[in-house]
Predict the structure of GntR family transcriptional regulator.
Amino acid sequence: MNFFQEKAVTSSDKTFFQLREEIVEGHISAGSKLSEVELSTKYEVSRAVVREAINRLEACNIVERKANVGARVVTLTSEGLLELYQIREALEGMAARLAAQHMPDAEINQLSSLLEGQQDEVKQRNVYYQEAGDLDFHYRIIVGSQNQQLITMLSNGIYHLARMYRVQLGMTGPRVTTAYDEHIHIVRAIANRDGELAEILMRRHIQYSKNNIAVKLSNMK
Amino acid sequence: MNFFQEKAVTSSDKTFFQLREEIVEGHISAGSKLSEVELSTKYEVSRAVVREAINRLEACNIVERKANVGARVVTLTSEGLLELYQIREALEGMAARLAAQHMPDAEINQLSSLLEGQQDEVKQRNVYYQEAGDLDFHYRIIVGSQNQQLITMLSNGIYHLARMYRVQLGMTGPRVTTAYDEHIHIVRAIANRDGELAEILMRRHIQYSKNNIAVKLSNMK
DNA sequence: AATAACAAGATTGTCGACAATTTGTCTATT
DNA sequence: AATAGACAAATTGTCGACAATCTTGTTATT
């Protein structure tokens, strides 16, 4: 589940993780107000640690804060989704390019065998895009870029917001085997050390995902 | 100077801005430790506001913090510079593409005339890449993308770190008229609503900048 | 009736003090 | 002499209280 292992050393960390999960999973609804005192009693910590947690969520673009007024969970809009996926396209495209340049052969082989292992499930039971598998794939490529700032940006910030959209729009939908094939092609480009192609394919792949979600979103209105 | 007008409403804001400026401009040296008590006496505020300011700086990748140990200003390395410019290339390239799609004609015209106004200085006195002009150019395109998350990311986070590198490596160097010509071509692509080309040109432009700085950096060692 | 000024309540911002953790030094043991 | 352990100093983490600001509802004035 937690690919990028985050260990909560301080109390603020724990509160931050809990709060983030509740928001992303939809237990705290989008657009709702975050009262510092309310949360501090709920989690049994002081207001100071709640404030710090909220500040960190703000840095992730998961909550918005106004001075002297308070913090609200962001609202999910089709514009926001579009914006987010434009950023993902740019950054993960670059990650794929860099992975083609820097990813060690060993890691590429692991990634290949990971996909091969998924092949059976996909072809027989049509259960790809099972969050976990998709996530694992993307995360390994991001790490493969060996760009620490890029890794941090994507895993700390963008990833959770993207998941929030998927979870709250009920993305268990179709997009089954096609995504799998796209993954295959991307890995092949990386294995061939073709950064140019890897970037192009990754960007296409993310565009398709976006379109898939955007359809769902427009259906809900 | 401040394109994206940031007004400090709260005391934390002010401390954050001051601290960020001192770090970026090199008055607080890279790699140095940030003591909360020391800073709180220096700026005459409580530790709480200093903590909040430091947290924000951490979100900008300008300081690094370890739990129960403290915060340090990041150290400037050639790897860090490389990573930063890879990110800029991806994000600003996307910004240029989006600007070609969404930027209003009026803004494009303003941008064109801005460059025309700079032409004299450039051709006659060789003083382009005068920080301000370059900055204004990039910022207008970022805003032209009309992607709010992208705008926030670049202006709040990445921009200041990039400036920190430039300032502390003494980037007043050459790269005079070439950058100007690159700007011209990018605007032309945007005016033609050619997002594909605008992105390519912007990415090249940023690659050149990176190379220019990387040379300086390797000379200093 | 509409608007403006005001007051009460609630929420966020700031502060100083205490608790927990780390770091460095000194001592004791092998 | 080197290592381990314990102690002391300093720094960060957490807390509750107070101050400043915003919001809401009421009253007064036109």
